[in-house]
Design goal:
With about 100 residues, the chain is mainly alpha-helical. The model has no long low-confidence stretch (mean pLDDT about 80). Helix 4 (about 55-65) crosses helix 5 (about 65-75). It has a single domain (about 20-90), classed as 434 Repressor (Amino-terminal Domain). It has helices at about 1-10, 20-25, 30-50, 55-65, 65-75, 80-90. About 10% of the residues are buried.
């Protein structure tokens, strides 16, 4: 029984990094976080549009852009800038807040 307890205190050599450690170890932490933030903002925008009954076509007309561009913004694909996200948020009556913590 003592041997089993001692074995449980040792780190398993077959375990790798944790989910939190992996992006940092791979050198993609910042890019991964930026992608996640972009996806969250896109999801929030879709939710507000849905509550307001606003279609992608209506959003495109308000933003004076193409429906394809709205698809890219809402799908968090391509280079969606903070400025683009702020403009989209203001069109649905919201404000985008960005802060450093």
């Amino acid at each position: 029984m003592i041997e089993a307890d001692e074995g449980m205190n040792k780190k398993n050599p077959h375990w790798g990094s944790t989910l939190d450690e992996f992006p940092r170890e791979e050198g993609v932490r910042d890019a991964t976080r930026a992608e996640a933030i972009t996806r969250v903002v896109a999801w929030q925008l879709r939710q507000v549009m849905k509550r307001k009954g606003m279609s992608k076509t209506q959003m495109a007309a308000l933003k004076r852009t193409s429906r394809a561009r709205i698809d890219r913004i809402l799908g968090a694909r391509g280079n969606v800038t903070i400025e683009t996200s702020q403009r989209a948020a203001s069109l649905v009556g919201r404000e985008l807040r960005v802060e450093m913590v």
